[in-house]
Design brief:
406 residues, mainly beta, four-stranded antiparallel β-sheet, 2 helices, 29 strands
Length: 406
């Protein structure tokens, strides 16, 4: 389904990744507290005639270039999120600070302190989600989910959250916006589906928590929505599928699909629209593989697999606007493109693996010293991903050529 076209090494372990909504841009947050923005090579325009001999700059096989890089947080950078229009990038770190910056330059436009937990102790952030153009969600280790209002320029209207909810009994592992109803006048979501602890939940921006499941008997690590189905990935290798959205959740109509028995499903990402693979998702596992899973229909099952890393688990998955898949984990990021064989097929999934294998200049002003690495303060929610705690390898020039394009 996908072939690896580039492996991009990082100076310290990856803790966060965000893909720009409209441009081939990738934001990376590292264990060292650095945040950097990468330019991916542009793909050919669909409107322009295809040349028989494309150059590296037009076929998507050029170079990955670093637009800017800065020490954004004193501790590790735990989460990143682009605003809805992609003009701003938000980051959250173990220093207890959330910062907003201009995507193009990395210039900070605003920052807030993460609220303390109920006992008054620091409550490290673990997830950011740009819910609407005016709303940012921030989740913490204590299971708090804070709702912040944003101005049109991407700055915070207030230093304190407008609302705080506790949808789970432990940290929030994923948040997915629920598509607005046909009756919506704004065209933006009002509700979100979340996973965390051992439960799944649905919350409303005005009403708060409207549903929380019973204890599912395992840690729920990931979630997404595809084709009206709510999906949740657990620590034991099973994918839970709830048909008919919120109604299916409330009525407990659950199906289970084993992706890999005994292995954690750390991240789930739907394949982009127009991929000719209905209800197909990519699942990043703790063993370093990415499984492609047909989540609907009678022929549901694992359709294929690629390997991101031999040692580290897959921490992040995303698809940039051109359809290339980006996987992150350990001290590398990999870029993948759809295989030609996949493009010529009818896209039907089978329960058998298709044999896919892995082919194995700083513009922003530094806010803190570039020297040294940070001690990871994250709790067990990242235990499978926590290894070298951000050791700095150095020596990178932040430009990486794609395979075969020297």
């Amino acid at each position: 389904m996908f072939n690896s076209i580039c492996t991009f090494p990082l100076p310290s372990d990856l803790f966060a990744q965000a893909v720009h909504p409209t441009s081939p841009l990738l934001a990376l947050g590292l264990a060292s507290g650095h945040v950097q923005l990468q330019h991916l090579p542009a793909l050919p325009s669909n409107s322009s005639p295809r040349s028989k001999a494309k150059t590296p700059s037009t076929n998507g096989h050029g170079t990955i270039e670093t637009a800017w890089r800065t020490r954004r947080h004193k501790g590790s950078c735990r989460s990143l999120a682009f605003s809805h229009d992609g003009q701003h990038l938000f980051s959250a770190g173990t220093d207890g600070i959330v910062k907003g910056a201009v995507t193009e330059t990395g210039q900070v436009t605003g920052k807030i302190l993460v609220p303390s937990d109920d006992s008054g102790d620091p409550d490290p952030p673990n997830l950011l989600h740009a819910f609407t153009p005016q709303t940012l969600l921030l989740a913490t280790d204590s299971s708090a989910l804070h709702v912040y209002d944003l101005r049109s320029d991407g700055t915070f209207t207030h230093a304190k959250p407008q609302q705080t909810h506790y949808p789970h009994d432990d940290y929030v592992s994923s948040v997915t916006s629920i598509a607005p109803s046909e009756a919506s006048t704004s065209g933006f979501s009002r509700q979100w589906f979340s996973t965390g602890g051992s439960t799944v939940a649905v919350s409303d921006v005005r009403k708060g928590i409207i549903f929380q499941s019973d204890d599912l008997g395992e840690e729920v690590l990931s979630g997404t929505i595809i084709g009206g189905k709510f999906l949740a990935g657990g620590e034991k290798g099973a994918l839970r599928i709830f048909d008919e959205g919120v109604k299916g959740l409330m009525e407990g109509r659950e199906k289970r699909l084993t992706v890999l028995k005994g292995e954690s499903l750390d991240v789930i990402c739907p394949l982009p629209e127009g991929a000719s693979l209905d209800d197909m998702i990519a699942v990043g596992l703790g063993d370093g593989t990415v499984k492609f899973v047909q989540a609907g229909g009678k022929r549901g099952g694992v359709a294929g697999s690629v390997r991101h890393n031999e040692v580290e688990g897959v921490l992040a998955l995303g698809f940039e606007p051109g359809g290339r898949m980006i996987s992150g984990g350990g001290d590398i990021v990999k870029i993948w493109e759809r295989s030609q064989e996949d493009d010529s097929s009818d896209g039907e999934a089978t329960n058998k693996s298709n044999g896919i294998t892995d082919d194995g200049s700083e513009n922003a002003e530094a806010e803190e010293s570039e020297d040294g690495s940070s001690e990871d303060q994250r709790k067990p929610w990242r235990k499978k991903r926590k290894r070298n705690k951000g050791k700095d390898r150095g020596g990178s020039n932040h430009i990486m050529a794609f395979k075969g394009m020297d």
